[in-house]
Amino acid sequence: MIKAILIFNNHGKPRLSKFYEHYNEDTEQQIIRETFHLVSKRDENVCNFLEGGMLIGGSDYKLIYRHYATLYFVFCVDSSESELGILDLIQVFVETLDKCFENVCELDLIFHVDKVHNILAEMVMGGMVLETNMNEIITQVDAQNKMEKSETFIFQSTRQDR
Amino acid sequence: MALKIVKGSIDRMFDKNLQDLVRGIRNHKEDEAKYISTCIDEIKQELKQDNIAVKANAVCKLTYLQMLGYDVSWAAFNIVEVMSSSKFTYKRIGYLAASQCFHESTDVIMLTTNQIRKDLSSPNQYDTGVALTGLSCFVTPDLARDLANDIMTLMSHTKPYIRKKAVLIMYKVFLKYPESLRPAFPRLKEKLEDPDPGVQSAAVNVICELARRNPKNYLSLAPLFFKLMTSSTNNWVLIKIIKLFGALTPLEPRLGKKLIEPLTNLIHSTSAMSLLYECVNTVIAVLISLSSGMPNHSASIQLCVQKLRILIEDSDQNLKYLGLLAMSKILKTHPKSVQSHKDLILQCLDDKDESIRLRALDLLYGMVSKKNLMEIVKKLMLHVDKAEGTTYRDELLTKIIDICSQSNYQYITNFEWYISILVELTRLEGTRHGHLIASQMLDVAIRVKAIRVFAVAQMATLLDNAHLLTGNVQRKGICEVLYAAAWICGEFSEHLENPMQTLEAMLRPKVATLPGHIQAVYVQNAAKLFATVLKSQEGNTEGTAAQETSQLMIDRLPLFVQSANLEVQERASCILQLVKYIQKLQQKDVEVAEEVCALFAGELNPVAPKAQKKVPVPEGLDLDAWINEPPSESESEDEQPRAIFAKEEPKHSRPRHTEVDEKELARRREARKQEQANNPFYIKASPSSQKVYQEAPGVEHIPVVQIDLSVPLKVPGLPMSDQYVKLEEERRQKERAEKKKKDKKKRKEKRSGRGKKHDSGPESEEDITPAHMVDIVTEEMPENALPSDDDEKDPNDPHKALDIDLDRPLADSEKLPVRSHRAAEALKSPAEDGEAESAAPPELKKKSSKDKREKKKDKDRDRKKSKEEKKKKKHKHEEKEEDLLGGQADEPVVQPEETSEVAALPSSTSAEVSDLDFWLSNAPVPSNTQEAATVAEAAPVPEAASCTAPDSEPDEPKDTELEETKSSKHKKKKQKKEKEEKEKKKKKKHHHHHHHSDGGAEESVQNGTVEEEEPLPPMSNYCLLAENSYIKMVNDIQGNLQDGSQVVVSVIFENKCESFLKSMEFNVLDSLNCKLQRPEGSGPHDGLTVPFQLPPGVSNEARFVFTVQSIVMPQKLKGTLTFIVKNEDSSTHEKLDFKLHFTCTSYLITTPCYSDAFAKLLESGDLKGSSVRLEGVNMPFHHLLARICFHHHFSVVERIDSCASMYSRSIQGHHVCLLVKTSDQTVSIDAKCDEPTLLGNVLDEIKQTFSQC
Q1: Average pLDDT score over residue span B41-55
Q2: C-alpha B976: how far from its chain's center?
Q3: Closest Cα to residue B476, out of B513, B505, B512, B441?
């Protein structure tokens, strides 16, 4: 199970937070801060797994993260997930973002956090991995976006009618 | 209205959208909070508007603010509003917001049930998808209960996109509503073989997650997973399955044996590191489970260790980390194979990556030996000094202690060295593990008698320098050490060089700043020291010194008497009075030392921490029974009878005891003493040994006066452990030299050139002798200690509720609550009729356990006004299956494909288990299994093959015969499973609608292709075949979908007499059209042996396959059953004649049909019509339909009011369509079929069914 997925930048500013277990807002912020603290002080060429973190996890949980340019992608998972598998999943996630946003950068995530959520929802659901095939993810995301577009079109045209 | 909408849209153009909000926040870096608060005000305004677009925009912004840490729960209702928008765009925004901020205590969640249900059944798959995704984040027990059935239906949705989401969310539903697990499990299991890899992966995911928590319930799935493992190419799925096997193998070593080979193959073949790693992990788990009583799998271990070494040596830190992690698992069972890689692991200790160092530390535990312990610990101590960050340092500390103390200090040769190490560790700043060090000190001092002199001296120094330990607030954890120091100095005070000085140190005013429990130990041990001091002083001087000592006590103790801590206060005042009395005696020149010492006389023995728990309860002792008559309510807590096992009188209860009158108290005490005296297992209380093992609670919370020390913490006079390392080396060198001398003397050989080298060469463990012979006292255990000491599971674990036996047949009460028809309510309780539908679901729940029907997708919602009556069903096949599951009372649901087969077995679970046994014990290679199954399938008369044995050896003991029966059943199951798979491939579902219970008395089954307004009466297709005083036979006939010329006759044999029935032989006279399939080689008139025997009162089912040429006419076959009735003294041959009636109905197979396909079929014009009228049918329409469905294998295509279309197909592919109408007890059935004779006969049979009732 995945307990939480966090994306924050090099300064610890949250860009996306998805908790699959309920915490109140304050705890969530504390978790983000603590995770940032743990992750940010690690060198570039150390391993991507991290134990500990008082707030989230416990002995069964691990933080698995990847650092891309200005962003950290952190997954908090328990022992039923394969460590290397989750690393691959992060890679798939980032590549999918890259495809969907065309050369994704931090700004895309800043301004379109809802879209990022929608993409993530096609990959992970309720803390369990739903889909790992990038093409399938993109197909579903695109289909939904298309639907959204057609709806706004209808909306606008009805407005014009009136 | 239109104007309003336009106005709203225009307004919206001026609203901030999410991007504007983000931009705004970025532009207001200085007064972000203020800016956001104005934004929130705006949002509040927007939420008040009617325009849903504006609301959605506002909610979207709130979702963003929630991420920034703002509480947006106040907008929960608005979120629900947006969720219920009909536009996907807004719906998605609403669900996202809900998934981010709803949780179990969000009260508006209960408003969403109907909305979610609507979305789940939406024709748009993305509406459904979005609802499922959202629900997965905020599902509550209520939602789970109300929606479980809807989601379960979605598991068989036509779109894989929905299927996989529905499958995945079931896990959350199970967690919140464990009752749903059993009813939903069969379908979940079915999804393991879904054609879509995504769905399959989701199902594997869910079952793995379930099995991880309660593996034993999922052992029976092992064969299925094994098949998946050998066939799947999806690495994700493989990883999950392999992980699951890792959890299953500890429960079933035979599974491990089976796994080793395919796993090693995978290890060799795969290029994916993640898969390789998981394989290695599971092989390790297998090896661990096999480690007892198996020939060693050294090759596999070697392979694992080798692969892991490659991982560890990899430059990728991730692989290095995982390699070490897996290595530590091998270490537990096969330390030798890991030890050879010590170099590599020590190297990892120097890695710059903390995670890797931690893992390497774990491994070190198993690497130490007597020879290298000091060296390794020295290295670790260096790390301790260098380490930055308390976590890693604390980890180092605990590891050092673990390593040294493991297996009863096995590797420590010099305890002085160890004590010094412990003392050095006390200088660690900010460690949380003071109590760990303390307990080590105590343990060593108590158990290693030889070390006490040294330990006491060290502890005295520690006490003397206590200010260094307590000074800094950062060091509050470490002052725990003083607890140990004080106790050791007190208890072993006879070894103290200068007891007076230590006594003074213990009574310093600063002590009062220590945590209470430590002060208490100080006070108590000051008294012990006092006794020792008195003894020495009285011996040699005239007594003034002794009196001065008493005076010192009297001066200092009042400080503790004033302590806020009860324990300290009590002890202090007690001892103070004692000392005052002693002083009085001293003034009278009485020698008191002896008597004072006697207070503390006696040796304290170490008691194992769990000794108390392990005291077995003697026979005849009921711990829950009252020893005395129950006291009044208020005291019940203190006076649990258990208290007799407490070592000391419970102190905490003392204040309350004052309320109890003295007599009663005395009486109770007496009773308790009596009990204790008579109890040989009672461990006699010793004054303080118990306390030693008590964990010191809550040190952190006690304020300690803070003094900043800038001087480095160097405790003067403390020995450095390094010295011991040197000393030790020298000592060993000397020993070796001596030994060598002896050797030389013996051998008288010249080896001067190689002498030096030889020295540094490896020496065996035995060569090293401990510095001092230590007598390590083992911890005391009560006699007859109970060996098992399972750590109790966390009672709060949510997964505990999911520990559900999935093999047990589904009980009637377990069915999932289903939304039922409102009319049903009316029928049952007219009072509730008036209730609004929206309020209905919670009401319905209570009744739903009886209701098996569920409403289906509302196809033409827009057109039809009365929804209730006009629901259409899109997925009839799903429903039917669901109903099967829901309606069965007596059948093992876990393997629905077996339902027709396992008749009235004593327990279906045993069948299940034996099935697994069979798989595990036979057919080592999967392909073989399949082949075997296929063979069985090709000649589907397995009974015949297996039944020759009991026939030829009629006097075989019962056991072996049962064995054989079992194995024959396995084959049948295999065959059946195979069939099932084929069926799935063809995407057709075939259900056996016959059911039974023991004795066939109450058979209840409901085929529910109909919406039903009231529960159906129990129905069964089993009809009586023949009966006499010995045996009763009932049978059912089903067509075989795979083979258009086969029908399967299931016969339940029930033994009605008191004797054993055996050697049953079943035979029929074949007709030209219909033949019993017999095993190859047997003549056309030979009977088939029934593959089981029947003990008295038992029934069992056998199946016989018949080949049929033409199916348009019903026919009857004459047959005979012969059997032997065996009594204790005699056995007689008996026979029973019967007539097997093949109706045309039995050639029909329930096949779902969509209404459009149905319409096409009717339009095609290929079908011939016929009709029949039934008069005087006095039953509700839905009952009528259900009967047709059940008895005649039809399914309902569509039903409108009192009119329904139904469909079925024969095994040879004839379509049979019915249009059933009813009015006033008259039922007219118009039917069409491409084979008029068949149709005529079927209609006749239907007519007959209804004439009977």
Answers
A1: 89
A2: 31
A3: B513
Per-residue pLDDT for B168 more than 90? Answer: yes
Element (H, E) at B67: helix B52-67
CB distance from A161 to chain B under 8 Å?
A: no
* B 3-22 residues inside an 8 A Cβ radius of A: 5-6, 9, 18-19, 22
User: Is A126's CB within 8 Å of B137's CB?
Assistant: yes
- The pLDDT of residue A10 is 92
| Range name among B119-133, B532-546, B822-836 with the lowest pLDDT average | B822-836
- Whether the CB of B844 is below 8 Å from some CB of chain A: the reply is no
CB B956 within 8 A of CB B1126: no
pLDDT at residue number B730: 73
Q: Does A43 touch chain B (CB under 8 A)?
A: yes
pTM of the model: 0.55
Q: Is the model's pLDDT at B846 over the cut of 50?
A: no
* Mean of pLDDT over chain B: 73
Q: Which residue has the higher pLDDT, B1112 or B790?
A: B1112
- Say how far apart CA B47 and CA B61 lie, in whole Å: 11
Domain ranges of chain A: 2-161
A91 touches chain B (CB under 8 A): no
Which pair of structure tokens corresponds to residue A10?
Answer: 């090099």
Q: Enumerate the residues of chain A whose CB falls inside 8 A of the CB of residue B355.
A: 46-47, 49-51
Nearest Cβ partner of A125 from B126, B168, B318?
Answer: B168
Instruction: Specify the residue for token string 């994700």.
Output: B236
Q: How many beta-carbon pairs below 8 A join chains A and B?
A: 153
- Retrieve residue B1111's tokens: 């199916």
**A 44-63 residues inside an 8 A Cβ radius of B:** 45-52
- 3 state DSSP class of A65: strand
The minimum CA-CA distance between A105 and chain B, rounded to whole Å, is 15
In A, minimum Cα distance to B319 occurs at A47
Residue A48 and residue A66 in contact, taking contact as beta carbons nearer than 8 Å? yes
Q: B954: which residues sit within 8 A by CB, 6+ positions away?
A: B1062, B1063, B1124
For residues B1112, B1118, B1122 and B1125, what is the CA-based torsion angle, rounded to 10 degrees? 100
pLDDT at B1143 over 60: yes
Q: Structure tokens of B679?
A: 């109890």
Facing residues of B845 across strands? none
- Asked whether the predicted pLDDT for residue B496 surpasses 50, the reply is yes
User: Which amino acid makes up residue A78?
Assistant: D
Residue B1241 pLDDT class (50, 70, 90 cuts): confident
| Residues from chain A contacting residue B22 (CB–CB below 8 Å) | 110-111
B192-231 residues touching A, CB cutoff 8 A: 198, 201-202, 205-206, 208-209, 212
Indicate the pLDDT class of residue B900, thresholds 50, 70 and 90. very low
B104 CB neighbours in chain A (<8 A) are: 22
Q: Under CATH, which number does the domain A2-161 receive?
A: 3.30.450.60
**CB neighbour class for B148 (10 Å; exposed up to 12, middle 13-18, buried from 19):** buried
Shortest CA gap B1–chain A (Å): 11
B354 CB neighbour count, 10 Å cutoff? 22
Mutate to test the interface with A, among B17, B18, B22, B67 (most CBs of A within 10 A): B67
DSSP B1097-1144: T-EEEEEEEEEES--SS-EEEEEEEEEEEE-SS-EEEEEEEEEEEE-S
Both tokens assigned to A141: 């995301």
Residues contacting residue B749 through CB under 8 Å, at least 6 positions apart: none
ipTM of this model?
0.95
B165–A130 C-beta distance less than 8 A: yes
> Rg for chain A (alpha carbons), in Å?
17
Q: Do A143 and B126 touch (CB under 8 A)?
A: yes
